[in-house]
C-alpha cells in the first residue's frame, strides 16, 4: 500500500486506515462480534493497513480493548490514534485534569505504553482555540512520552481554520467526503503548514459504499435521516456515479477522491466484515482521473455547498 507522512511528524501511515468505531459496537453501529473484529484487524495488517483510529467512547471502550488484543505483539507495525473528551462510560469530560487519566485508561485497554496520536474528540468551539488550557496539557503529555503527536478531530472548515491558526496541532482528523467538502480550504492550509490530515467518514456513513439508494430504510444511529434526507442523498449518489470512469466502483471512487486532495494523508473507512475491509483497501490500488476529481468537486459546489446535507 502507498504510504504518506502525517504532516511534519515523521510518522508514516498507509493511505487507507481502519476506522475502528464499529469494533465491539453492536448496539449503535451493528458492529461485528469479538471474533470477527479480531479477524478484521488481523486481515487489515496482512493487507498493509498500519493506521488504526479509535476512541474511549467507541463501544464503551470495547474498540480499544479489541484493538489491544488484536495488535498484541505487533505494536511496532502500527500507528494508533485515540481521543480524549468522551468517556467509555458515556460521559463528556474535556477538563485538563481528566486528560492524563483518560490517556492512561486508553493505554491500558490498548495494551501499549504510548499513543501515536491523541486528538481532542469533537470539542466545543471554545476548545478549538489555542488559548484553551487543554493544549498545554496535550503538549505536556507529548513531552512525557505518552503521545507522539496531538491535535483535534472536527467537522467544519471554520473550526479547522481556527485550530490551524491558534494551536500547534501536528495532526487533525477532519470529516471529509464527496458530499461534505466544506473543510477543503482548511485541508489545503494544513498541508501547507505541515499538519497531517486524516479524512474521517470518507464513505458518508455508508452512502458512498454502494449499498444505499432511494428504497433504503434505517434504524439505530442511521435512523436520524428523514425521508427527505434519504431522497436527497440517493439523488446525490446517482449523480456521483454518473461521473465515474467505467469500471470504477462507488466506494473506490469515493475513497480515491478523498486521497486525491492535496493535504490529505490518509482516509479511515470502517469495516464491519472482511469483505468490506478488502474492498476498502483495494481502493488504494488506483487513482481517479483529474477530470473526475474536478467533476466531483463541481457536484458538491452546485448541489450541496450552500445547503449541507445533514450528517
Task: Provide a descriptive summary of the structure in words.
By secondary structure, the chain is α/β, with parallel strands linked by helices. It has a single domain (3-207, 251-287), classed as TIM Barrel. The chain contains 11 helices and 10 strands. The mean pLDDT is 94.
In a nutshell, what does this entry contain?
The chain has 311 residues and is α/β, with parallel strands linked by helices.
Number of discrete helical segments: 11
Low-pLDDT parts are: none
* CATH topology value: TIM Barrel
What would the principal axes of the Cα set say about the shape?
globular
Q: Which structural category do the helix and sheet elements fall into? A: alpha/beta
Question: Termini separation (Å)?
Answer: 30 Å
Fold topology:
Blueprint: E1 3-5, E2 12-14, E3 18-19, H1 26-29, H2 34-46, E4 51-53, H3 62-71, E5 79-84, H4 96-110, E6 115-121, H5 134-143, E7 147-154, H6 157-166, E8 171-175, H7 184-193, E9 196-200, H8 227-242, H9 250-259, E10 266-267, H10 274-282, H11 290-303
Parallel strand pairs: 3-4, 4-5, 5-6, 6-7, 7-8, 8-9, 9-10
Antiparallel strand pairs: 1-2
Amino acid at each position: 500500500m502507498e504510504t504518506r507522512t502525517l504532516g511534519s511528524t515523521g510518522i508514516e501511515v498507509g493511505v487507507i486506515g481502519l476506522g475502528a468505531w464499529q469494533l465491539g459496537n453492536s448496539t449503535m453501529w451493528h458492529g461485528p462480534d469479538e471474533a470477527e473484529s479480531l479477524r478484521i484487524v488481523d486481515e487489515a495488517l496482512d493487507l498493509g493497513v498500519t493506521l488504526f483510529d479509535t476512541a474511549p467512547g467507541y463501544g464503551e471502550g470495547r474498540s480499544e480493548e479489541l484493538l489491544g488484543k488484536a495488535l498484541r505483539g505487533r505494536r511496532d507495525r502500527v500507528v494508533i490514534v485515540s481521543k480524549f473528551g468522551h468517556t467509555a462510560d458515556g460521559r463528556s469530560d474535556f477538563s485538563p485534569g481528566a486528560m492524563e487519566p483518560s490517556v492512561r485508561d486508553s493505554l491500558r485497554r490498548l495494551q501499549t505504553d504510548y499513543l501515536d496520536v491523541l486528538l481532542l474528540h469533537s470539542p466545543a468551539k471554545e476548545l478549538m482555540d489555542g488559548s484553551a488550557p487543554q493544549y498545554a496539557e496535550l503538549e505536556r503529555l507529548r513531552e512525557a512520552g505518552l503521545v507522539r503527536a496531538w491535535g483535534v478531530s472536527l467537522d467544519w472548515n471554520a473550526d479547522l481554520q481556527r485550530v490551524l491558526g491558534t494551536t500547534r496541532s501536528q495532526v487533525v482528523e477532519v470529516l471529509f467526503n464527496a458530499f461534505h467538502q466544506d473543510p477543503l480550504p482548511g485541508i489545503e492550509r494544513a498541508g501547507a503548514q505541515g499538519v497531517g490530515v486524516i479524512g474521517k467518514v470518507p464513505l458518508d456513513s455508508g452512502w458512498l459504499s454502494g449499498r444505499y439508494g432511494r428504497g433504503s430504510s434505517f434504524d439505530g444511529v442511521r435512523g436520524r435521516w428523514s425521508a427527505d434526507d434519504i431522497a436527497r442523498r440517493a439523488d446525490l449518489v446517482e449523480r456521483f456515479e454518473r461521473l465515474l470512469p467505467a469500471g470504477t466502483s462507488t466506494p473506490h471512487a469515493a475513497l480515491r477522491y478523498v486521497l486525491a486532495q492535496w493535504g490529505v494523508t490518509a482516509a479511515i473507512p470502517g469495516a464491519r466484515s472482511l469483505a468490506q475491509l478488502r474492498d476498502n483497501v483495494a481502493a488504494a490500488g488506483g487513482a481517479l482521473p483529474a477530470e473526475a476529481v474536478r467533476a466531483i468537486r463541481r457536484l458538491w459546489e452546485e448541489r450541496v455547498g450552500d445547503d449541507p446535507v445533514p450528517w
